[in-house]
Specification:
By secondary structure, the protein is α+β, with helices and mostly antiparallel strands. It is built from five helices and eight strands. The protein binds coenzyme A.
Length: 184
């Protein structure tokens, strides 16, 4: 893929997507500080801690993550990352996460980022994409990935616990990948 890549959002605003690089640490810290707790709760790490972002930046070259950001007016407005393994039974599977700044949601930015992560997974020869989403907390993402042919492969009842202590079902959404989009 060629970066930087310009994309036009629903309201004709422009954003630029490019890979995250080692100089983006403070921009990424600023971005995650603006993401509401409910949206960060389902992530594996506390992204408001500078150590989390510092570790991501330090691991950019370790070959197991492809991380892209979307920018508007020199601020990060979206972040997507694709994670994969180099060895073992699930090395054909990529996992991903996308977060878009609340005021830029529903303008197709999540779709642009998802398209790039799918393409990156195909380029790496991955066969399956997986994302685990919490029903009731990540419904927008569940709807968004369904548009790209993800289907619910499993459901873990009452598996996740929200910030308020209540239980939520987690769904495992899967997409089979082919070598080109035309096989879709
Ligand atoms: C999920 C998320 C990344 C989507 O980003 P976005 O930029 O708003 O997504 P898009 O505008 O490209 O929307 C794509 C599709 O998702 C669906 N969608 C988006 N928001 C929705 C909502 N609140 N409710 C229902 N469907 C929704 C729609 O089908 C939409 O397609 P349409 O525009 O043709 O109607 C964003 O809501 C977000 O950052 N949420 C918090 C973090 C999160 O849940 N991440 C998921 C981990 S993968």
């Amino acid at each position: 893929m060629r970066y930087p890549k310009e994309c036009i959002l629903k309201d004709c605003e422009e954003a630029v997507i490019r890979p995250l690089n080692s100089e983006d640490e403070s921009l990424l810290n600023r971005f995650y500080k603006k993401i509401p707790e409910n949206d960060r709760w389902c992530m594996r790490y506390d992204t408001t801690r500078p150590e989390t972002v510092r570790r991501w930046i330090a691991n950019l070259d370790n070959g197991s993550v492809f991380s892209i950001i979307a920018l508007c007016d020199n601020e990060i407005i979206g972040h997507g990352s694709l994670h994969f393994r180099e060895f073992g039974a699930t090395k054909h599977v990529g996992r991903f996460r996308i977060v878009v700044m609340p005021e830029f949601r529903n303008k197709r930015l999540g779709t642009w980022i998802l398209l790039d992560l799918i393409q990156a997974a195909m380029d790496k020869g991955l066969k399956t994409l997986r994302t685990d989403l919490v029903r009731g907390m990540e419904d927008a993402a569940i709807e968004a990935v369904k548009k790209f042919d993800f289907f619910q492969r499993a459901e873990l009842k009452n598996y996740a616990i929200g910030p308020n202590g209540s239980s939520y079902d987690m769904v495992i959404m899967i997409k089979r990948l082919h070598s080109t989009w035309t096989d879709f």
